[in-house]
Every structure is written in structure tokens, then in C-alpha cells.
Amino acid sequence: METLSGTTTFVLHKVAVAGRRAIADRLAERPGLTLWEYAALAELAELGPSAQNALATALGMDTADMVRLMDALIEKRMVQRERDPADRRRYRITLAARGRTALRTAQQSVRDVEKTTLQPLTPAERATLHALVTKIRAHSTQD
User: Fold this and answer.
1) Is the pLDDT of residue 1 over 60?
2) Which of the chain's ends, N or C, has fewer CB atoms near its CB within 10 Å?
3) What residue spans of 31-75 are helical by DSSP H?
């Protein structure tokens, strides 16, 4: 029987957990975001103004949790919630200037953590690793 450290998926999990913890700690320090707040800002930057339920779906988040998350980001003045002009029954979320600034800071923090985490690898090895885990994720049924 293989040891846990000889199981690739277990090792990937351990690296992911450590990386997630490091990113969460760094984001909490600067710019003062949670991982979910960062994810929501990043998704909004990618998608543009979005229906709140579409954003929840994109992040794999329960809609009630999304409401609480958006309330927190609105309180921080990082996003704005307004009625969707195309469908007055739903809300549309837009990234505010403060949210864009926080996102840029957060992205730099994430890059710094990733650089530290992947420091033992050469640039070519980093590119190969990224390509391989991206390929695995594309074929995964769980997201």
C-alpha cells in the first residue's frame, strides 16, 4: 500500500491547503479581504456587471451566502448593488473604484504568495505544473 506522501492527489491537497491559508492570511493583512471577498471581486472584474445570482453560480456559492457577502462588500464600498435595468426583479452587482483598487492590491498579494510557494521550481517547471493542473481541472467533474 502506498503512503499518503506517495499519493499525488494527497500531496496536491496539502500544497493547496497551505497555499490557501497563506493567501487568506496575506489578504487579511493587505488589503483586508477574505478569500470569498477576493474571489467575488476577481469574478466581477472578469465578468463585468453581473446579476447577483449569476455571480453566486459562478463562484459555486449559495445565494443566501452571496447576499451576505455582497452586503459586506457594499459596506466596505467595494461594490454597488442596483436593480438590473434589463430585469427589475433582480439585482446587478458592479465593481466600485475602491473594489478595483483592493483587487489590484489583492492580486499582487496572491502573486507574492504564489511566487514563494513555487520558489523551488524553475520558470519552466512552474509553467508545466500550471498546464498539468489546469488540464486536470478541465477534466474534473467537481468544481
Assistant:
1) no
2) N
3) 35-47, 52-59, 63-75
What pLDDT digit, counting tens, does each position of 42-53 carry? 999 999 999 988
Please tell me what DSSP assigns to residue 33: -
Judge contact between 94 and 32, C-beta under 8 A.
Answer: no
DSSP summary character for residue 141: S
Q: How far apart are CA 20 and CA 8, in angstroms?
A: 18
113-131: pLDDT as tens digits: 999 999 999 999 999 999 9
Q: What is the pLDDT of residue 133?
A: 95
Q: What's the count of helices (H) and strands (E) in the chain, helices before strands? A: 6, 3
Query: Closest by alpha carbon to 31, among 102, 82, 84?
Result: 102
Q: How many CB atoms lie within 10 A of CB 20?
A: 12
In angstroms, rounded to a whole number, what is the distance separating the alpha carbons of residues 76 and 102? Answer: 10
Rounded Cα gap, residues 42 and 44, in angstroms: 5
Q: Please, which residues bridge with residue 81 across strands?
A: 93
pTM confidence score = 0.88
Joined grid coordinates for residue 137? 481541472
Name residues whose C-beta falls within 8 Å of residue 89's C-beta, 6 or more positions apart in sequence: none
